[in-house]
Amino acid sequence: MLQTLAPARPEPLKLLGVPLPRRRACYALGFLVCAGLLAFALYLQFQLHEDPCPLCIFQRVAVAVLGVAFLLAALHNPGRIGAAVHALVQFLAAATGAGIAARHVWIQHLPPDKVPDCGPGLGYMLESFPIGQTLRMVLQGSGECAAKGWQFLGMTIPEWTLLFFVAMGIGALAQLWNRR
After folding, report:
1. Cβ distance 134 to 108 under 8 Å?
2. What is the Cα–Cα distance from 145 to 157, expressed in whole angstroms?
């Protein structure tokens, strides 16, 4: 009697013992998390009147770029090679956001006498200076970036954002091993 062998299904990747869902679902979840984070940032700004500093705005841009990268991957539903390309783009967006958030956290933890002086607003800088100089000025930070503002569980918004970017970067790289 001949027995046909069905192709073996790949074992799903497990993260902390829990199997990851299919790639498309992971990408969609990544997009929804980014959209939720941006919605929460807008709530903090317009309902709780926590005005964002220039570094906060750059972090929002990084979250938006990461969200778009996840959305494009979810719509594309790539195979193995495409998943690697999407993972690289998502990881780079998350790493960039983590770098900005880490700089912000560092500024918040400076001693008061080392905090940079407050500078002009981001809108003025974008209108008055070339983009390269504006980027340098924003990344140097200012006094308003040192303000801690809203906190949750003893962590500031930039600390939570740094944690978010690290987690999303790990999640993006995990998709390299997700065969489903």
Report:
1. no
2. 11
Per-residue tokens: 87: 């993972």
Question: Domains in the chain, please, with CATH?
Answer: 21-174 (1.20.1550.10)
The residue type found at 115 is V
What's the CA gap between 59 and 124, in Å, rounded? Answer: 19
- Cα–Cα distance for residue pair 121/27, rounded to 1 Å: 35
Using CA atoms, how far apart are residues 59 and 95, in angstroms rounded to an integer?
A: 11
What separation in angstroms does the CA of 132 have from each of 15, 19, 137, 145?
Answer: 40, 44, 9, 19
- The pLDDT tens digits of the residues spanning 101-123 come to 998 888 887 777 766 665 666 67
Q: Are 77 and 46 in contact (CB under 8 A)?
A: no
Nearest-10 Cα torsion for 139, 148, 95, 176: -170
pLDDT in tens, 42-72: 998 889 888 777 788 889 999 999 999 999 9
